[in-house]
Fold each of these.
Amino acid sequence: MFGKLKSLFSTDVGIDLGTANTLVYVKDRGIVLREPSVVAIQAGSKRVLAVGEEAKRMLGVTPANIVASRPMKSGVIADFAITEAMIRYFLNKVAPKRLWSKYFKPRMVIAVPSGITEVEKRAVQDAAEHAGAGKVFLIEEPMAAAIGVGLPVSEPAGSMIVDIGGGTCEVAIISLAGIVHSYSARQAGGDAMDKCVMDYVKRVYNLLIGERMAERIKIEIGSAYPVGEEKSMEIKGRDIVAGLPKTLTITSEEVRDALKEPVSQIVDAVRSTLDKCEPELAADLVDRGLVLSGGSSQLRGLDKLLAAQTALPVTLADDPLSAVAEGTGVVMNELDFLARHERAS
Ligand SMILES: Nc1ncnc2c1ncn2[C@@H]1O[C@H](COP(=O)(O)OP(=O)(O)OP(=O)(O)O)[C@@H](O)[C@H]1O
Ligand SMILES: [Mg+2]
């Protein structure tokens, strides 16, 4: 009886706790929040000044007394206290504290990278509980992405998903609702790409540029494979030698060259997962191909490059940034079943 009453009042929530972006899915409402995983804090006191979009605008332009930081690195929690503050802030934003929140805590489905350790899992769970969650269910990010894009994961046949976010590239082959093979490349996400662009510009032009500039260059003229016409872009930074602000032009060929390393790591991750695949599953993949999700899967030409390198059909998800959060939403509808199952066992 109490259980029924409780489920009437509490909201189930799904979270895609990403290195670059956090998305929150609320049962029966869908995705209600998408914000950068960035927190601005007062140096020394750890007081939170801004979270999400507002904090991201502060990255790289803060005075000495403000630190804008990204508490998630390579898909896992690098700063526990700040991650917790961030989850709490986002939860309050989607469901302002109610009188009964002490008694009716939301159940949460949180997507975590497939390669994370028990200690890292515990850290996510604790951060969510401290931030106000009731029961916490963790789901592996590639599984959530596969469910989110609508792959038939519970069928006795192979499906393949490649989710490339800010911090990780997760590859998984799924059959009968389980991950048969997976690979998590922690240095092959969008952050690594941005870093390569920064390094390139520094090495070739002696120009220092910020993270946000590097990301803009990647998104506007970056590519993994020659597709369409080549472009160029004006970029601004600080000249190392003269120590002064400087503007110069960079071409899409140069950016493709700068991105070679992380892009080849993505290709390697996909190929080595396919290498381990049983013949039956491999045969399924020849027909069904692989699906790309995650923000970095939108890098121009990446789908073409992977198709060329694997000889498999490659499809880009309709909404690559939402796949994981949508997946947590689908899983949420099974929570009552999971809870009953847990009580029975
Ligand atoms: N058009 C684009 N081309 C290339 N990269 C892009 C594009 N749009 C977004 N990105 C990159 O996608 C990344 C964010 O993707 P996403 O939100 O899926 O990551 P995340 O889920 O937060 O990270 P992770 O899953 O690794 O923890 C950023 O690095 C961003 O620069
Ligand atoms: Mg992600």
Amino acid sequence: MSIKIDFETDVLIVGGGPSGATLARLLSKKNKNNILLEKNFNFDKPCGGGIKSQVFREFDIPKDLEKKEIKVFNLKSIKNDISVNLNNSSISIVLRQEFDKKLRDLAQESGSKLLEARFLECFFENDDVISKIKMKNEIIHIRSNYLIGADGVQSTVRKKVFGNNTNALLTNYALIDNKDIDYCDFYFGDDYSPNEYAWIFPHGNKVSVGAVLKNDDAKTVFGKFKDKYYENEKVKGYFIPCWNDDKAFYKNRTFLVGDAAGHVLPFTYEGIYFAIKSAEILSKAIINNEPKMYQELWNKTYLKKFRFFKFMQKVFLRNDFFVNLMLKFFGKEKLQRRALSYWNGSSQPISNKKILFKIFTLFFRK
Ligand SMILES: Cc1cc2nc3c(=O)[nH]c(=O)nc-3n(C[C@H](O)[C@H](O)[C@H](O)COP(=O)(O)OP(=O)(O)OC[C@H]3O[C@@H](n4cnc5c(N)ncnc54)[C@H](O)[C@@H]3O)c2cc1C
């Protein structure tokens, strides 16, 4: 039985979040024909919305999407409470519904075709991918040269093509109405979020409270944490990728990017910035028609950094003793500056063992 093809394109991108919308925009800027699918144009991704402010400059994104600029954040444990001055770098708070929509609009303005439709499944024919899509109540088919899974942590593209899911953890999250704060707090330790962290961020005229959690006990922990600061808000659980270097980049003319590929920085759980940056790397591989280039370039740019943050998380978020040690380290200006330089990319981490040695020697030196 021959299938009626409704649209043909070089690249079909599934998911209009930061990774998919950025990829579409960058491909269009290079005149690479693409279709961007988003299943819900009004989707408001549950998210703290914290992103490195440099993203606006790097990707020419309108600065009015920044709802708050955070220049100082607080790190807290049961024993310590320290402020970290971000100096030249800062964190911006964005509202995801508005932010993602703008990124999709920018893609469309650059030439991408934008469809509100849901990817269902795909199959392969010679050098092409045929995708089955639900648009309104109709089933349509799109033929493309490449298929992109930018459809988030529970990626359907990944399930259908790679046959597995993104490694993920549950995040408990609540929005508190009618609160306006100007700071970001990060809470560490067993009372707040064992081996991970909890946060309180501004969110427009609301506040977002959340914690990355490992098991059911942690749910109780989050309840106590939230109730300590805010009452009666509805808590919901959402998945967030837990990066494990599973090398899910490319298979059968299909690429994964952003949460679908697990590209969330360990320890900090920053996913928006790395979704956008990974999309930039992928756009280069597609423009050059060199699928292997994606993984090679990503590894060259980020593998060391991701491994470093994973290692630091293992060492310092192990238990309350190490958490308090970490915050003591952060109390030292020199160590604080060094840690920030690894985070904002102004310097590259050296080997994990060497870095631990350096931290300890700097700490004990007068
Ligand atoms: C509670 C919580 C708080 C977070 N806080 C932060 C934070 O403060 N800072 C930060 O950097 N990161 C944060 N993250 C992580 C961040 O949200 C993600 O890493 C980021 O959104 C990844 O972008 P993406 O484009 O890859 O995927 P997504 O943003 O998930 O976008 C995927 C898109 O695909 C669409 N889609 C899904 N399936 C289909 C389909 N079948 N067909 C068509 N479209 C589809 C979805 O509607 C969605 O718009 C948080 C995550 C959670 C859960």
